[in-house]
Each structure stands twice: as C-alpha cells, then as structure tokens.
C-alpha cells in the first residue's frame, strides 16, 4: 500500500483568498487524484493529477478554480482559488498503490473552513 | 453519466447480527469494486474489493458479492461488533483515456452497531 500525507491538516481562510494543499506519497505512483468531501457527504472526484501534463478535471470543476500541479511521481498540490464559504469542505488526495492498477489509498484530508 | 447508487443510507443493527449494504452501478465496463470504511474524522480505509472476474470474496467477517449481469454488488458483515460502526462507501471503476481508471463513489451508508 501507499502511505500518503497531506499539509495542512486544517485551515481557516478568508473569502477571496487562495489555499494550496500539498500531498506527498512515500513511493512513486502512477496515478494521483484529488477529491472533495462535503460534511456528511460522499467523495466527489475533482481531478486526476497527471505527472508532466495538465490535470484531467471532472465535470463541474475547472482549472482556474482548482489549479493542480504534479511535478514528480510522489508529490502533488491542489490550490483552492478565490475561496467562498461554499468551498468549505474536506479535500483528500489519493494514489494508486505501487504496482497496483486499481486500489486507491487516501491521505488524511485537509479540512478547509472559509469565512 | 456514470452513477453508483448505494442503499440504505443508514443502517442500525444489534451487535452480533449481520449487516448488508447494496450498490448498483451503471457502466457495464466497470471491472473493479472497492469498499471503504470511514470513521469520524478519519480517512477512508479500503476494507475489501472485488474484481469482475469473481463473484464473491471473503475476508474474515467481511464478504462482498458481485452480480455483473444485474450490475450490483453487496457488502456483508457478519457477527457485527461496536467497532464496525462507521460510514461505508462502495465504488465502481470507470475507464478513462489511456487505460487509466477512476472511481465513482456511492452516497455512503452510516452503520450503527447497538450493543
């Protein structure tokens, strides 16, 4: 399995500002993903973070609002831009386990509150 | 589009009894079906998964069954214990471009085990 860490674990931000969340995996992985989980809800895929190319965004999510970087096979960042209270949520990154083509392991999440 | 329906949304059982959670999916090309357990404030943890080439898989008190024809799969927990109380999510794989797969999650089931 892959061990995944995220920073920060939580933050409280003012509307109109931006926050960058970091995700670090302990081994090289092919696929990394970013999810949003609103309180009491399921996991919604924001985008697939592609190494060396632009992220693949799901319907309803755009690069200007959620820019993603993936400079190498163990690290990715998600930025939540121009935040509003509706962006308050938990943001989770995940990665496929090494040598695994299917199984996703999740980071601990970043709890974001926008005032 | 791709869709995963999960039922029930809440489930309460007596300790020692069995619990069953059911999911249906829409994409006939889905071939990987994981189940995650999420305790309050924690990350989703993979508890069992099944691939489309088998109909049933068991791991101690947990089992998953898959009916590809009907496009539904179920999680069975026997001899339930208080520590089984959590939110459970099913998911189904969806093929993206270049052979990559993403997951679509069900809405979640809040399972409560009553002592």
Plain-language structure description:
The complex is a heterodimer of chains A (115) and B (115). Chain A has strands at 4-7, 10-13, 19-25, 32-37, 44-49, 56-57, 68-72, 75-80, 89-96, 104-106, 110-114. By secondary structure, chain A is an all-beta fold. Chain A is globular, with a radius of gyration of 13 Å. In chain A, strands 2, 4, 5, 6, 9, 10 and 11 form a 7-stranded mixed beta sheet that branches. Chain A has a 4-stranded antiparallel beta sheet with strand order 1-3-8-7, with no helix packed on it. Chain B is mainly beta and 115 residues long. Chain B has strands spanning 4-7, 10-14, 19-25, 32-38, 45-51, 56-59, 62-67, 72-77, 86-95, 101-105, 109-114. In chain B, strands 2, 4, 5, 9, 10 and 11 form a 6-stranded mixed beta sheet that branches. A 5-stranded antiparallel beta sheet of chain B has the order 1-3-8-7-6, with no helix packed on it. The chains are: A mainly beta (115), B mainly beta (115). The interface between A and B is medium-sized, with 20 and 24 residues.
Average pLDDT metric of chain B: 94
Please give the largest β-sheet of chain B: 6 strands, mixed
Number of strands of chain B: 11
**Biggest sheet statistics of chain A:** 7 strands, mixed
Residue runs with pLDDT of under 50 for 5 or more positions of chain B: none
- What is the chain-wise order of helices and strands of chain A? EEEEEEEEEEE
The chain-level structural class of chain B is mainly beta
Structural class of chain A: mainly beta
Biggest protein-protein interface? Answer: A-B, 20 and 24 residues
Helical residue percent band of chain B: under 10%
So how many helices of chain B? 0
Taking all Cα atoms into account, the compactness measure Rg of chain A is 13 Å
What is the molecular shape of chain A?
globular
Rg of chain B, Cα atoms, Å: 14 Å
Distance between the termini of chain A: 37 Å
Helix count of chain A equals 0
């Amino acid at each position: 399995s892959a061990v995944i860490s995220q920073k920060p674990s939580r933050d409280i931000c003012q509307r109109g500002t931006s926050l960058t969340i970091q995700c670090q995996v302990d081994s090289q992985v092919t696929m990394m993903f970013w999810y949003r989980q609103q309180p009491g809800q399921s996991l919604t895929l924001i985008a697939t973070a592609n190494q060396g190319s632009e992220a693949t965004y799901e319907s309803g999510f755009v690069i200007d609002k959620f820019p993603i970087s993936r400079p190498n096979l163990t690290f990715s960042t998600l930025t939540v831009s121009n935040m509003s209270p509706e962006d308050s949520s938990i943001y989770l990154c995940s990665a496929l386990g090494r040598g695994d083509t299917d199984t996703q392991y999740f980071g601990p999440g970043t709890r974001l509150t926008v005032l | 589009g791709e869709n995963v329906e999960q039922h029930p949304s809440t489930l309460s059982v007596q300790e020692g009894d069995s619990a069953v959670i059911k999911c249906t999916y829409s994409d006939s090309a889905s071939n990987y079906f994981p189940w995650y357990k999420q305790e309050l404030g924690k990350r989703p943890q993979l508890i069992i998964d099944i691939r489309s080439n088998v109909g049933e898989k068991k791991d101690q008190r947990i089992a998953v069954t898959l009916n590809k024809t009907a496009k539904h799969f179920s999680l069975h927990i026997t001899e339930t214990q208080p520590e089984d109380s959590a939110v459970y999510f099913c998911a189904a794989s969806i093929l993206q471009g270049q052979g990559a797969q993403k997951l679509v999650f069900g809405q979640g089931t809040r399972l409560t085990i009553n002592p």
